Amino acid sequence: MENEQEGPERQDRSVGRRRVLVASVAGCAVLGGVLVLLPREPARPAPPSPGALAMAAVGGGAPAALPGLTELIREREKAVRARPGDAASWAVLGVAYAERGRRLADPAHYPRAEKALRTSLTVRPQRNTRALAGLAALANARRDFRAARRWGEAALKLEPRRWTTYPLLIDAYTGLGEHKAAKRTLDRLTELRSGPAVLARAAAVYRDRGWLEDAAASLADAAAGVRAPVERAAYLEQAGRLAFERGEPDVALRLFREAVRLDPGQRAAKAGQGRALAALGRTADALKAYRVALAGQPCPQYALELGELYESLGMPDAARTQYGLLRELVRGAAAGGADEGLVLGRLEADHGDPAAAVRRLRAEWQRRPAAEVADALGWALYRAGEPAQALPFALRATAPEPGGGLRDAVYMYHRGMIERELQRHGAARRHLTEALRINPHFSPLHVPAARAAIEALGEPPDAGVPEMDDGVG
């Protein structure tokens, strides 16, 4: 009985199979056989091109991959040749040039960026927020923070809710030492936008205010919240720098290595590896890492660090080669409109002409009275034999601000050595010890000098009136 009930169903299935077979045979020559009878999967969209990814990154305030930037530049160059009146394409081209120059430490891209951005403004002189913001980004890359502030504020006035302008202004305010303005701008940014790019920007502000735990937490969240390898690598590099500054070279090395694994073009992280490896005593590996970083991103700061590492290893000729390279890079930067006067002043103070360093850094101080410039100028004055003039700048660099302030090991070391020269032994001992507490690996050259100075100062006296710090710090 059961078989009788199943008979018609089996017959139907058999008929269905025959129909499929007939359709397969009949259609194979024209339509590819039985596939025409099967449901098709929806076509998957093609993955975005590197240029499209770079365009999205540049427009969204995120790091872009170097191959993507190259493709984006090629696309936009073609677009402006075909449509010279396309203000938007000129602006995107200018921003891409500026970002490529920054990533490669190649200032030759900056004049091209400026020409493209100013062409965009000529084509569209009114309400061209994209070009104004691009000029702010270019000025930041050139370390012309006053111009960056001017362009950024002009862009913000046109479109107060355009969130990508706020990070540009934060960089400009920070470069000028205007940390309160940077914090206010960050507060406004976080009201408008959240996400990894904002978290990373917040971390930089927190770091400058001395809120290191908050900075580390923000960077961890930023790195965890992105999928793009280039963006994640940039946040890991930032986290690695923070870890090194906190005296954790092993943690820094892991972060830098992961950043390079994700983005082999992340040369800042490669230089960070050199810094961390030197701190861990792996000097051969450190030298190799620095050389790789410099080959891909010839940054004057890397040349200074590598030269000082060579000098600490008793290799003065190799050190002088790096110092010569630094001077060449600074000249190239100036030709591209970029200001590398700060790093050149640091070089001259320790390895050249301290009087020339003082002149250069006084001019830099007039342009931007930031803590890093105060520190460098104070140290140059000390090296030039003017410790009394140096002290106010050292105090300025290390003085806590309302709500906090960065406690930098290098700044503390410089202050301590200046105070030692002025016979302020208690303050000198305290600040040299603080430098080594913050980061016992802050410099392969100056850490031994700090330890020797502390030993020479000896133990503090058992009693007496504590020395004052002139009401600062």
Characterize the structure shown.
The chain has 473 residues and is mainly alpha-helical. It has helices at 2-31, 50-59, 66-82, 87-104, 109-123, 129-141, 145-158, 165-175, 179-192, 196-208, 212-224, 229-245, 249-262, 267-279, 283-296, 300-312, 316-335, 341-351, 354-367, 371-383, 387-398, 409-421, 425-438, 446-457. The chain has a domain at 194-293: Tetratricopeptide repeat domain (Serine Threonine Protein Phosphatase 5, Tetratricopeptide repeat, Alpha Horseshoe), CATH 1.25.40.
List keywords for this structure.
mainly alpha; Serine Threonine Protein Phosphatase 5, Tetratricopeptide repeat; disordered N terminus
| SS class | mainly alpha
Bulk shape: globular
Q: What is the CATH architecture term of the domain at 194-293?
A: Alpha Horseshoe
Q: Give a short account of the largest sheet.
A: none
Assembly status: single chain
Helix content: over 70%
Task: Please name the CATH topology of the domain at 194-293.
Answer: Serine Threonine Protein Phosphatase 5, Tetratricopeptide repeat
Strand content: under 5%
The count of DSSP E runs of length 2 or more, i.e. the number of strands, is 0
Mean pLDDT: 88
CATH domain class of the domain at 194-293: Mainly Alpha
Give, in order, the helices and strands.
HHHHHHHHHHHHHHHHHHHHHHHH
In angstroms, what is the radius of gyration?
29 Å
Number of helices: 24
Unreliable runs, pLDDT <50, ≥5 residues?
1-41
Note the gap between the termini. Answer: 101 Å
CATH homology superfamily of the domain at 194-293: Tetratricopeptide repeat domain
